[in-house]
Amino acid sequence: MTLRGRVHKYGANVDTDVIIPARHLNLNTAEELAPHCMEDIDAEFAQRVRPGDVIVADTNFGCGSSREHAPLALKGAGVSCVVAKSFARIFYRNAINLGLPILECAEAVDGSEAGDELAVELETGTIRNLTKDSEFKAKPYPEFMLELMRAGGLVEYTKRRLASEKR
Amino acid sequence: MGMTLAEKILAAHCDRQEVRPGELINCQVDFVLANDVTAPLAIEQFRKLGVPSVFDRQRVAMIPDHFTPNKDIKSAENAKMMKEFALEQGLVYYEQGRGGVEHALLPDDGWVLPGEVVVGADSHTCTYGALGCFATGMGSTDIGCAMATGDIWMRVPPSLKLVYQGHLNAWVGGKDIILHTIGDIGTDGALYSAMEFHGEAISQLPMESRLTMSNMAIEAGAKAGLMVPDATTLSYVRARARREWQAQEPDPDAEYAEVREYNVEALEPTVALPHSPGNAVPLSQAPRVEIDQVFIGSCTNGRLSDLRLAAQVMEGRQVHPRVRCIVIPCTNDVYIAALKEGLLAIFAEAGCAVSTPTCGPCLGGYMGILAEGERCVATTNRNFPGRMGHPKAEVYLGNPAVAAASAVAGRLAGPEEVLGSAPK
User: Fold this and answer.
1) Is A88 in contact with B191 (Cβ distance < 8 A)?
2) CA-CA distances (angstroms) from residue A7 to A140, B34, B250?
3) pTM to 2 decimal places
């Protein structure tokens, strides 16, 4: 599957409090959360973002709280994937579990600017910057993570596991 | 080759003789928790699995604490949904007035124990590592699945050994040690790793101060922050444990990704300046900014010993006229103890607003939200932009004595600056 969209670029340590501020944690759906996504560091984000867009960020993206509302809000806003130099671990799990693709690739982060058009091939981890005509290779997913994603996320994976244990 | 404390605990929970960093394991869990913010999503995911009940109803807790007593209708609906699920399933559940902030409540009530694996839908689940268990925060989907299966996939983390030598100065405790450490290694300094805290300074720390340290392991990016159980741990746990438990300790020849040594003799009260827990500086080097609010409470520093420290500074003094000082004991038991000891009277007479347990203002939920440009000294764990309200508000993190002194001085201040002056 190829994802295609424009870059929204951020620095290091983008925390879950700015991805979705806690004052909105009384909301539970992607649609309700989306209008508030990133509002504390980028007030125009929700208006500017278009379906398929890509968030590109420096190190430790998604640090802080365990709120799954963060990847949910990004998905609701139409973000197709996040490319960062590194991810905070709880955010990493949450994104995989909910089916928000995330890729670790320092070169793509350094080689992309806000507004650039990216094409991301998840199977191969290839990130192409169409604006700059450059290509990068993301760190491959561990086999188990691929298995989870192929199953359609942790809930589907667990469902199958429970069904096979019953047999 | 030996194993670290984290490796020993994880190996024992996946029936293996040994595990090594980087390995993916399926791990049995001893306890699973969620709160009023994370439980609704977890319950939704749990229901999709189609199983009738959780793996063990005495090993799953639902704690209303973040926006409770309910702050608005949506929060009330979430809390109601969680409560109905907890009652239907017969889970561990505490109603308002009998419980408190999850990470203070669960160790204090003997639900989480040494040697165990605990997963919670809250990033500060790592608090319990102070008891010598492997406790880690996850999202709602992971927790919804763990509630059904009683296990979870995990990657065995590398361990980072932190050794603290020397004796602590007056007014310096676990909060200062951990802020200093995060300032040193950075907010991703322990990313994906288990921190293992050692040394004579840790041995001398009382249990509550240790819980404060492990609580903030996540602020360095860590998966867990563990301490080796000793006499202090055992006397705390024996008085509370609700189950049998088996403590573990690291092997003498355990292999660490890194060992860092600190000497705490020169450590001052430490403050994290806006807008990161990693912006830690000794109080003597922090700017004496005027402040608008002080918050003493949270799963980091809302325990009885924290309130005692704050009361020691505040007794017989008045909160500065410009400042609102909010004091929130972290559990109902702490509230009662503080009431009986007269601490709540000291706070109320000093002009503090004293509330019943809630996470409330720590995460900008309610009960003390900051306006644009306001400054707050808080005993909490995070000071990201917008954490306690307006994104242009500023939060300074410090220990309870610093928070109390700042409330009296009307600016960022240390206890000695206030105690030096005659009580008013």
Assistant:
1) yes
2) 21, 35, 46
3) 0.97
